[in-house]
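Please fill in the sequence for the structure shown.

STRUCTURE ENCODING:
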């Protein structure tokens, strides 16, 4: 799958990709700090619902920040 045309380096979010785990097992990420390597493209949001794409595997998913779990 190609990268979404709306993906922009200026709009990023720091969540672990539910498919490939991009962002998992990083000490910087685990300590809640902003990591320069493990981020996801923030494509859009509506209130607490974020639409994300992983730069590694290009997986698309939504994440409801009120629930702290990916929305499938």
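FILLED IN BY: designer on duty
SEQUENCE:
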């Amino acid at each position: 799958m190609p990268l979404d045309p709306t993906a922009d380096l200026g709009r990023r979010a720091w969540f672990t990709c539910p498919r490939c785990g991009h962002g998992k097992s990083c000490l910087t990420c685990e300590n809640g700090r902003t990591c320069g390597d493990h981020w996801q493209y923030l494509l859009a949001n509506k209130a607490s619902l974020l639409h994300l794409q992983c730069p590694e595997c290009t997986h698309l998913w939504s994440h409801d920040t009120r629930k702290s779990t990916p929305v499938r």
